[in-house]
Design a protein that fits this description.
Order of helices and strands: HHEHHEEHHH
Number of helices: 7
Shape: globular
């Protein structure tokens, strides 16, 4: 498997991951290759090449329905990136560690899930606002 950092270093792959995240946040159960091509303005062979790399890195899953393939985000492998970044976050990390030591494991996990969901929601709202006319 390719190093996760090599996989996400490519801008097109990051764009695909962001699109899949936005669509999942909107309740979509997968995104077709043709929709990704349309949204990114990239060629179908280019998108397919990047989806193959993302699939091999386990960052996306694919569901086949007849001739169509629908891709969904599998964010689990990004935990490695998250774990690597945490030491670089500075003093706020010390406060998080202090809070984490007070919480039970399940409460700390729930707080992490809520925090990630809030960040995703913020991004979705920001993206939607940028698409409004006059912005």
């Amino acid at each position: 498997m390719a190093d996760i950092f090599d996989v996400i270093a490519d801008g097109t792959r990051r764009d695909i991951l962001r699109l899949l995240l936005d669509r999942a946040t909107a309740g979509e159960r997968g995104t077709s290759v043709s929709h990704i091509v349309s949204e990114l303005g990239a060629s179908q062979p280019t998108v397919s090449k990047h989806l193959k790399v993302l699939r091999e890195a386990h960052l996306v899953s694919v569901r086949e329905e007849g001739q169509h393939r629908y891709y969904s985000l599998s964010a689990g492998p990004l935990d490695e990136v998250d774990d690597w970044l945490v030491p670089f976050l500075g003093d706020d990390d010390d406060a998080d560690s202090a809070i984490g030591s007070v919480l039970t494991d399940s409460a700390a996990h729930a707080a992490d899930v809520v925090g990630r969901a809030a960040a995703s929601a913020k991004h979705a709202v920001t993206s939607a606002l940028k698409k409004l006319p006059g912005r």
